Amino acid sequence: MEMKRHALRDAIRVALVACAATAAAAHAQDAPTPSSAAPTTLDRIQVTGSRIRQVDVETAAPVLVISREEIQKQGFNSVADILQNITSAGSPAVSRTTPLAAGEAVGGAYIDLRNLGPNRTLVLVNGKRLGITTGGFQDISQIPAAMIERIEVLKDGASTLYGSDAIAGVVNLITRRNVDGMQASLYGGQYSQGDGQRTVLDLVAGLGTDRGSVTVGAEYTEEDPVWAIDRWFSASRYPMGEGRAPRPGGESGTTQYGRLIVPGRGNFTLRRETPGLDPRGLDSYRALNNDIDFSLPVQQSTLLAGIERKSVFVNLDHQLSDRIRFTGDMLYTDRESFSRNAGYPYSSQAFDTPMSIDSYYNPVGNQSGDADPTAVHFTRRGWEVPRENRLSLTTYRFSGALSGYVDLAGRSWDWDVGYLYNQNKGVQVGTGNLNLAAVRMAVGPSFLNGQGVVQCGTPDNPIPLGTSQGECTPWNPLLPFGYGGPGDGSATDPAVRQFIFPVGQAISMTKTQDYFANITGTLATLPGGDLAIALGIEHRNEYGEFSPDALAQSGGSTDLAAGPTSGGYSLDEVYAEVQVPLLADLPLAQELTLSAATRYSDYDTFGDTTNSKLGLKWKPVDSLLVRSTWAEGFRAPDVSNLYGGASQTFSFYTDPCDSSFGAARGNARCLQDVPADFRQPANDADGIANGPGTQTPIPFVSGSNPDLTPETSESMTLGVVFSPSFAPGLNLSLDWWTIRIENTIVADTETQVLDDCYLRGIEARCNASTGSRFERDASTGEILSFVTTPINVGHVETEGFDFDVNYRRATPWGTFSASWLSTYISKLELKTDALEDNPPQQLNGLSIGTGANFRVRSNLNFGWEHGSWGVSWGMRYYSGLKERCALDDICSLPTYSAPWTGGRILRLHERPSTTFHDVQVRYQAPWNATISFGANNVFERYGPPMYSQPNSGYSYYGGYDIGRFVYLKYQQKF
C-alpha cells in the first residue's frame, strides 16, 4: 500500500508540473493562425455535476439554480439565509439560538442537504472547494451575497467528480465576473419587537479591458443579538404559546442569591429582602424556599447570537495569449460573533472547594461565634459575570488557474491547471467561568487585618492582597447579587471578579491546499453527437488544530475541560468522465445520452477507495426529459473525528429509566441498574428532571476515534422534466431520490446510548469498556460518568421526492410568475448497531436529539413586474412533527407504537405545521436606483413550542422565524 501510495503521489506531482510547463511553453509560442485560434467550445459551459463542457444546461442529475435576480427579490440578505430556506435543506447544524454552543464552528453558517449533516454536503466556490473546520464544516456565510451571480445546488451524490463529502449533494457558489461599473447597496431592518437590528453595506465594482477584467465586492454586515427574555418561547422552559402563561419547570436551583449548606442543619440563603444584614451571622439567613429561591438563566441569555462580518472578494480574469487565460479569485473575511448564557452555576461540592472553617465570611466558622463551627459547602451562580463567547475568525482564500485549449488529433481540448489555498484562523474569548485554584484560595482561610480589610490566609501566615500570581482576594459567595459592595467580598467588587473569573482564550487554525489539473474534449463524433471525455488529477492536503484555553485543558477552571485537536491528512486522486450520445433527432429519441464517471482516491490515513457513477438522459420529445443517475460516494473521517481532544459538555439527554417519564421505566433491564423509583438528576431547582431532554448537573465527556474508516454511500435518482408546448412559460419537474450511507460516522449521544441499552436491548451498549460508555452509582442509579465517541456503525437511509413547478407569463398588465418548490421525505432512518434483528430507528417527521426532521418542506412564490414596479409574495411551509411527551397532560399519542419501536410504547406529542409569509415591494427609480421594502414573516407567525429543543437551546425549533422582520434596501448603480 505504501509503495502504491507514493507512486501515485509522485505521478500526480509530475503530471501537475508537466501541465504547468506545457502552459508556459504554449504561452511562449507565437500567436496561432486564424484556422487554429478559435476554440470549438466557445458556447459550451460547465454545469455543476459534470466536468464536461456542454451546451445543454439540463443534465442527468437534478440541479436547482438560484439566480442573482431571484436573490434580490428575497428579503434574506446572506448566502446562508438563502440556502437555509430551500426545501432540500435540513436543520441548521450550529444554530445561532444555542447560547451554550462553543468551538471554532460557532458563528458560522452551514448548509445541510437532505438532513444528512453539513459534513456530507460539499460547498464549492466557482467549482473549487471552500475551506473547512476541523469538523469538516464549510461556512457559506463567508461569501458576500452581492458577489453571487448564481447558486447551483446539485441534489445528487457527486464523489466521483469532486471527491469526499459530496454524498448528499453539492452547493456551488458562482461569483460575478466582468462587471463594468459600480454598484452600492444599503440594507437595514429589525424585528417588530424593536430588536435584532441588521445592517448590510456592500459595494461591487468592476473594470474590464479587451484582455481581461477585475471585479471586487466588499460587504459589511452587523446583526445585533436578540435576548431570550424578549420572546415568549424562550423566556421559559415550558412555554404554552403566545399570550399564554408558561408551565413551571426548568428553573435552576443554583441561583445568584447563594445557597449555604450547613451539615446537619439544612440549606439556607441570606434574607436578601432585608437590607443591611450581617452575612457573617447565621441569624441573617433563612431556610431555602424552592418556590422563590430559583434562577432564570434566560434572563441573561441570548436567543439569537450577534454577528459582525467584513468580507472582500476579488475575481481576476486575464487573457495571457490567444490560447491561455489566467483566472483567479481571492477572499478575505473577518467574522466576529457574540453569544451569552447566564453566569456559571457553581457548586463547591462538585469541585471540592468548601468555604473553610477559618474563612472570615463563614457564618458558622471559627470566627462567627457559632457553637458548632464547621466548613460549609455552597452554590452560587456567577450572575455578575455571565458566560460570554466572542469568536473571531479570519479567512484567507486564493484560487488561481491557467486555462486554455490545445489541438490534439484535429480536435480542440480544454485544459486547466491550478492551485487553491484556504486558511481559517480563529480566536475564541470566553468569560464567566471560574478559576478553581483561585476559588479555593478565595473561600479558604481569611481574616480581618489591622487595616480593617479582609485578607486571605491567617494572621500568622497572610497571603498578599491582589489578583496576581501569589496573591489572593477573598470572596463571599453567600452574598446575593446586588446585595454587597466593594470591600465586603462581593463579586460586585472588580478585584474579586478579576481574581476568580479568568478570561479564557482558545485558538484554531485550518488549512487546505489543493493542486489540480483537468482536460476535457471530444474523442469522436457519433451519430448522436460528440463523444466527450474529461480527465483530471488532484493532490490535496488538509490540516487543522484547535487549542482550548490552557486552564480548560488542565481542568483548572469550570470551563468544560477539553484537550487540543491537531492533525491532518493528504490524498491523491484521479478521475475520468465520459458522455456518450447514443441517439439524437429520432422519433421517441430526440436525445439519448449515457454518462459515466469514476474516481480513485488514495488517503494517507485509511488507504484507497474507488467510486463510480452512471447517468442517463432521454428526451422522447423536445418537451419531455427523463433523467436518472446511480452513484457511489464516500466521506473520509475529518480531523476532529480522528485527532480531536476529549472535551466536557453539559449535555441535554433523556434517561429512559426515569420512573416518571422514561420510555423504559420499570422494565427488567432498567431494574438491574436503577431502583424502581429512580429519577434522572438535573440542573433544576429541585435537582430532578421535569421531563425529557434535561441538562445533566455534571459534565460528560466526548472524544475522538483514530480508528474510524470512511463512510460509503449509494444513491439513485429518477426524474422527469416537462415543458409543455401548449403552455409556454410552464416548466414542471418531479424527481425521486434515495441515499443510503453505510459504515456511518455517528456522533454518539447519551440518549442514543441509553436507549440502545434499555429500550432496544443492545447489551454491548450497556457495559462497553471502550468507545461510548457510562457508569452508574450502584445504589442510587445516578450516572456518575459518561463518555461518547464517534463510531462507524449501522447506516442512514433517506428517500423522497422533489416536485418543482415554475411558470412565467407576460401580459399587458405586467409579467406574472409563480414558483412552487416542494420536498417530500418518505423515509429517514438511522441504525446504530450491526444487529440484524434490531430494526432501525425512524427519524422522519420526528423531533429528537438529532434535530427536527420535517416530512414536507414547500415554498410557494408569486411575482409581478410592471414597468418600474415589482411585487413578490412568498410562503414557506414546514410540516408538523412528533416529539416525546414532556408533560403528562400534553401528550396526544400516549400509546404510540410502530414496528421500529420493537413493540414498545413511546409517548409522543404531535406539533402542528407552520407557514411563514414574506412580502417585498420594489421600485426602479429613474436615477438608476432600486428601492425595496418588505417583511419576512409579515403576519408574525410563530411555530409551536417544542420541548425537545430541536437545533436550539430553547423550546422552539432553531430554524423557525423568531418574529416579523421588516427591512428596507436601497441599491444604486453608477
Describe this structure in words.
- With 974 residues, the protein is mainly β.
- Helices cover 9% and strands 44% of the residues.
- It contains 12 helices and 50 strands.
- It has a 22-stranded antiparallel beta barrel. Strands 1-4-5-2-3 form a 5-stranded mixed sheet.
- Strand 10 (259-262) and strand 11 (266-270) form a beta hairpin.
- The longest helix has 27 residues, at 2-28.
- Mean pLDDT is 91; it is low at 1-42.
| Strand tally | 50
Helix percentage: under 10%
Mean pLDDT value: 91
Distance between the termini: 60 Å
Oligomerization state: single chain
Strand residue content: 35-45%
Uncertain regions spanning at least 5 consecutive residues? 1-42
Number of discrete helical segments: 12
What is the radius of gyration? 31 Å
Q: How would you summarize this macromolecular structure in one to three sentences?
A:
With 974 residues, the protein is mainly beta.
SSE layout and pairings?
Elements: H1 2-28, H2 34-37, E1 63-67, H3 68-72, H4 79-84, E2 121-125, E3 128-129, E4 148-154, H5 159-162, E5 169-175, E6 181-191, E7 198-209, E8 212-223, E9 226-227, E10 259-262, E11 266-270, E12 285-287, E13 302-304, E14 306-319, E15 324-341, E16 345-347, H6 348-351, E17 377-381, E18 387-408, E19 411-431, H7 436-442, E20 446-448, E21 454-456, H8 494-500, E22 504-526, E23 529-547, H9 550-554, E24 565-586, E25 589-603, E26 608-621, E27 624-635, H10 639-643, E28 647-649, E29 652-653, H11 668-673, E30 694-695, E31 700-702, E32 711-722, E33 730-742, E34 745-747, H12 750-758, E35 773-776, E36 783-788, E37 790-792, E38 795-811, E39 814-831, E40 841-842, E41 846-848, E42 851-852, E43 856-866, E44 869-878, E45 881-884, E46 893-896, E47 906-911, E48 914-925, E49 929-936, E50 965-973
Parallel strand pairs: 2-5, 31-36, 41-45
Antiparallel strand pairs: 1-4, 2-3, 4-5, 6-7, 6-50, 7-8, 8-14, 9-13, 10-11, 10-17, 11-12, 14-15, 15-18, 16-17, 18-19, 19-22, 20-21, 22-23, 23-24, 24-25, 25-26, 26-27, 27-32, 28-31, 29-30, 32-33, 33-38, 34-37, 35-36, 38-39, 39-40, 39-43, 41-42, 43-44, 44-48, 45-47, 46-47, 48-49, 49-50
